Amino acid sequence: MPRLVLTVIGDDRSGLVEALANVVTAHGGNWERSQMAELAGKFAGIVVVSVPAERADELTGSLRELDGLLDVAAHPGADEPLAAPAVEHNTLTIDLVGNDHPGIVHDVSAVLARHGLSIVTIETTTRDAPMAGGRLFEAHVVVRVPQGAEISQIRGDLERLATELLVDLDVSEQ
Fold first, then answer.
1. CA-CA distance, 27 to 49, in Å (whole number)?
2. Greatest Cα-to-Cα distance within the chain, rounded to the nearest angstrom
3. What's the CA gap between 157 and 85, in Å, rounded?
4. What DSSP designation does 151 have?
5. Which of 4, 80, 91, 171 ranks highest by number of CB atoms within 10 Å?
6. Could you tell me where the DSSP H helices lie in 38-120?
7. pTM of the complete model
């Protein structure tokens, strides 16, 4: 069964998920996985749906009915869930907290890319700093580490960066 990756965004209000789910269900689709959140007054997310091959074009066309409520784009996904990789991977979880300033995500992602790490998930937020004023930046990142990668070098580079950025960092291996 073909799988579609839907990207969605709209002004946050109740009923958005239901409206999308109605269209998916009406075309024999199955909602497999999603990540959605309210961000800056918008509701945004990604959804993986499977749909019978003969109804995929019909479903994609019907998503236009949501215009004005949600902007939805459909992208072809892998027809079958990807098999587990033959090579075993470690996972690192990186938690970072510090004063917010431009460039933190860029700097952290540059270190990860230099080591050939793949981001599985990344969640970031800012919030008011208690007592001191200003804003705090928080990130929770899960990365896939290929077998043979030197965890101590990765950890060392991240710790050097944390010192430069003046942020607290916790790196744990899974």
1. 11
2. 59
3. 27
4. H
5. 4
6. 56-62, 104-114
7. 0.81
Number of helices (H) and strands (E) in the chain: give both, helices first: 4, 8
Domain end: 51, 76, 101, which one?
A: 76
CATH at 149: 3.30.70.260
81 in any annotated domain: no
Over residues 9-43, the pLDDT tens digits come to 999 999 999 999 999 999 999 999 999 999 999 99
At residue 52, the pLDDT reads 95
Looking at the domain assignment, is residue 39 inside a domain?
Answer: yes
Last-in-domain residue among 76, 106, 132: 76
Place of tokens 């509701």: 43
Whether the predicted pLDDT of 99 surpasses 90: yes
On whether both 40 and 112 belong to a single domain, the answer is: no
Give me the mean pLDDT over the 80-103 stretch: 79
Q: Which two tokens stand for residue 105?
A: 């995500």
Any idea what the Cα angle at residue 38 is, between residues 162 and 134, rounded to 5°?
A: 40
Among 103, 82, 93, which Cα is nearest to 141's? 93
Q: Which strands make up the sheet holding 89-99, listed edge to edge?
A: 118-128, 135-146, 89-99, 167-173
Q: Which domain holds residue 152?
A: 89-173
Residues 71 and 95 in one domain: no
Per-residue pLDDT tens over the stretch 39-73 = 999 999 999 999 999 999 999 999 999 999 999 99
